[in-house]
């Protein structure tokens, strides 16, 4: 079954051209099936790019998925056309009384700020609190993962001496876990961040497990034992050229930054970077939709209840 998105959304044309089966809302409404209701709280500045990246992996499943795009009201996005935001995005106030099978909270380029100094921190806290009772399973990505670990468990982030930037090798701690099943013993994933969370802090929380980590990148996937809150510190969703574009952006800003590690072939920015993480991204997002969400979420979505006690 396909992903269910508006035909006018830029991702519809892009994914169709990649031979990924997407379904417009009219066709989906004629099928007698309950699609998974998945929200994406998009905190990234270039929102169309993030939409395309995440929808590509959410569409690689036999399940029908209905997407709701969310943005914050307390921060005005300057890098996405206002017409796009007004047409395709909602605020938490628009959906606060609804239940969702799953939600993805993206990263954001604010990691060097204290959490409380982020302009939309209070609004994000409200949304993260809302997920406990209205969302069956939530994935938090990069800064989103750090923010959620801090909010839910008071786990701090730590500033790194140098930006963690590139594609790193990881291993799986629980090979037969629902979220990591099918991953290779050693697999790769991109990272792009200035801060980290530490294993020692997570280990102190009985409710949390570390499912995957890396010698160079540290904790990669952590989750509550019921897999209803998932924290991914890297960017499995990245495109082939995302790290390259970030590197060129920083160079053009005059920043002194090294090449992303394990990314450019022969360390040559003119050569096409190899994608070494696509299989792992398909596996993790597919496992989440199938095993963590579809196999466990109530058929009557209104029966979703509190999932994280304080």
From TrEMBL:
GO terms for molecular function: homoserine O-acetyltransferase activity; homoserine O-succinyltransferase activity. GO terms for cellular component: cytoplasm. The record marks 111 as: Important for acyl-CoA specificity. InterPro entries: Class_I_gatase-like (IPR029062), HST_MetA (IPR005697), MetA_family (IPR033752). It is found in: Cytoplasm. The keyword Cell inner membrane does not apply. Its EC number is 2.3.1.31. The active site is at residues 142, 235, 237. Its main location: cytoplasm. Pathway: Amino-acid biosynthesis; L-methionine biosynthesis via de novo pathway; O-acetyl-L-homoserine from L-homoserine: step 1/1. It holds the Pfam family HTS. Keywords: Acyltransferase, Amino-acid biosynthesis, Cytoplasm, Methionine biosynthesis, Transferase. Transfers an acetyl group from acetyl-CoA to L-homoserine, forming acetyl-L-homoserine. Belongs to the MetA family. This is Homoserine O-acetyltransferase. It comes from Romboutsia weinsteinii.
């Amino acid at each position: 079954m396909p992903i269910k998105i508006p035909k006018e959304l830029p991702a519809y044309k892009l994914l169709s051209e990649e031979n990924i089966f997407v379904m417009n809302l009219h066709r989906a409404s004629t099928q007698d099936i309950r699609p998974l209701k998945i929200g994406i709280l998009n905190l990234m500045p270039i929102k169309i790019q993030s939409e395309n990246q995440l929808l590509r992996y959410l569409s690689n499943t036999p399940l029908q998925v209905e997407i709701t795009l969310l943005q914050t009201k307390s921060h005005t996005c300057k890098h996405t056309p206002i017409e796009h935001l007004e047409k395709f995005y909602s605020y938490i106030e628009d959906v606060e009384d609804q239940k969702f099978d799953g939600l993805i909270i993206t990263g954001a380029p604010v990691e060097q700020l204290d959490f409380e100094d982020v302009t939309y921190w209070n609004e994000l806290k409200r949304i993260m609190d809302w997920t406990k009772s209205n969302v069956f399973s939530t994935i938090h990505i990069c800064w989103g993962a750090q923010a959620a670990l801090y909010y839910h468990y008071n786990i701090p982030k730590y500033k790194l001496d140098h930006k963690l930037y590139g594609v790193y090798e990881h291993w799986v701690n629980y090979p037969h876990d629902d979220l990591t099943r099918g991953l290779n013993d050693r697999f790769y994933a991109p990272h792009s961040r200035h801060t980290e969370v530490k294993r020692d802090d997570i280990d102190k929380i009985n409710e949390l497990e570390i499912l995957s980590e890396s010698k160079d990148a540290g904790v990669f996937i952590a989750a509550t034992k019921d897999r209803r809150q998932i924290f991914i510190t890297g960017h499995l969703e990245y495109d082939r050229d995302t790290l390259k574009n970030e590197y060129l952006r920083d160079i053009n800003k005059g920043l002194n930054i090294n090449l992303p590690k394990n990314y450019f072939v022969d360390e040559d920015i003119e050569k096409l970077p190899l994608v070494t993480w696509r299989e792992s991204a398909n596996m993790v997002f597919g496992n989440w939709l199938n095993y963590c969400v579809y196999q466990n979420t109530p058929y009557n979505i209104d029966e979703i209840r509190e999932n994280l006690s304080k």
